[in-house]
Amino acid sequence: MELLTQISVRTTKHSRIREADLDNLEFGKQVSDHMLVCDYENEDWQQPAIVPFANLSMSPATLALHYGQTVFEGMKAFRMSKGPGGEDGRINIFRIDRHYDRLVRSLDRMCMAIPPREVFYEGLTRLVEIDKAWVPAAKGSSLYIRPFVYASEAKFGIKVAEQYRFVIFTGPVPELYAKPIRVKVETTYIRAARGGTGYAKCGGNYGGALYPTQIARNEGYDQVLWTDSSEHQYIEESGSMNVMFVINGKLVTPPLSDSILDGVTRECLLILAADLGYEVVERPVPISELEKAFQDKTITEAFGAGTAAVVAPIETINMNGVNYFLPEYGPNNLLTRVKQKLERIRTGSEEDTHGWNHII
Which of 93, 124, 187, 330 has the fewest CB atoms within 10 Å, i.e. is most exposed? Predict the structure, then answer.
C-alpha cells in the first residue's frame, strides 16, 4: 500500500452536532458525523477514506456474521483544560500507541489482516480533528472511539477470510458508572478459558458473557465477577472490566494471562497507584481470601477498571450466596485518587510524565 498518508476525505453536508445535547449524554447512543473506512483485498490495504457516518452494506454470506472474525478496540479522546473553568481548544487522544498494539494482538489471535500503523494513527487523528466539535467538555465525559475490523468476504464456508474492512467511528459519552455497583461472583459460567481468546477483544467474548450477566441482573446485581474456568476458585475479571482490590492497604489485582484482557486503564491505574506510594501486587486472588478479608475487615475497596467505565466502585460482592459490603467511598480512597489523577493527566491539568497523551 503506497498511499498510507493520503486519506480521502468527504465531509457531510448536514452535520447533526446542532441536534446533540453534549451536556446530557446517554452512553453509546449518539455517534459523530464521520467515520473512517479502509478495505483489505488482494493481500493489500486499499486507500483509507473518511466519509459521512452511514450504515454498512454487506452480503448475508459475509464471513464475520457466521464465524466470528470480528475484533474491536475501545479508546477515548478528551478536551484539554487550560485551568479551572475553561478549555484550551486542543484534543487529547489517550494512549493511541497502546490501543493499536492491543488491536494487533487481537487481530493476530483471530487470523485477521492488521491495518498498518500509519493508517490507524493518521486516520484516527484526522477523524477526530474533523469531528472535534463532538468532544464534550463536561466533567467525566469524553469522545468514545471505536476502531473495529471484520471479515467482509462473502463466502459461507468456514475459512480464514481474505477480505476485511477496517472502520473507526466515534461518539460523545458520559461517565458510565456514576454510582457504586453490585456484583456477584460467578461460579457456573465462564468468560474465557486458558488457551482461548480471553485476552483478545473479539466479539464472541462479549456475546458469550451476556447470558450469565443477565441472570445476575435479574437477581439484583449490575455485573458478575468472573472466576477461572478450571476450579472457579480465583477471581479474574469484573464484567467487561479488569478488577482491583485494596487489601491490607495494598492494591491487589489478578495477573494477566491469556484468559484476562490486558486492560489499558488497568495498566494506567497500577502505574498511578505506585506513583502515589501504594504497594501494587499482581497475583491470583482466591474467593476464600476475599471472604476472609471481609470477615477480618482488611478489604477497604474494590473496583472495576476499563476504558468505558474508567473506575467503577463496587459496593457489594455476593460470594457463595452471601452479600458482603464495602465501606462507603470518599475523596481519600485510592480509587478516587487514581481516577482523579488519571483525569487530570488526560485533560492536561497535570503533567503527562508517562507520555500517554497524543494531543492534536
Answer: 330
> Is 145 in a helix, a strand, or coil?
strand
- How far apart CA 260 and CA 225 sit, in angstroms, is 12
Evaluate whether 227 touches 186 at the Cβ level (below 8 Å). Answer: yes
Q: What is the pLDDT at residue 134?
A: 97
SS3 339: helix
Give the pLDDT of residue 147.
Answer: 98
Q: Which three cell numbers stand for residue 306?
A: 476499563
Instruction: Give the per-residue SS3 of 82-136.
Output: EECCEEEEEEEEECHHHHHHHHHHHHHHCCCCCCCHHHHHHHHHHHHHHCHHHCC
Residue 190 buriedness (CB in 10 A; 0-12 / 13-18 / 19+): buried
- Do the beta carbons of residue 70 and residue 151 sit within 8 Å? yes
Cα(269)–Cα(331) distance, rounded to whole angstroms? 16
d(CA 147, CA 350): 28
User: In sequence order, which residues have a C-beta less than 8 Å from that of residue 189 and are 6 or more positions away?
Assistant: 211, 212
Q: What is the pLDDT of residue 337?
A: 97
User: What is the DSSP code (8-state) at residue 225?
Assistant: E
pLDDT reported for residue 214: 97
Residue pLDDT, tens place only, 75-96: 999 999 865 455 577 999 999 9
pLDDT at 87: 59
State which residues of the chain have pLDDT below 70.
Answer: 1-5, 82-87
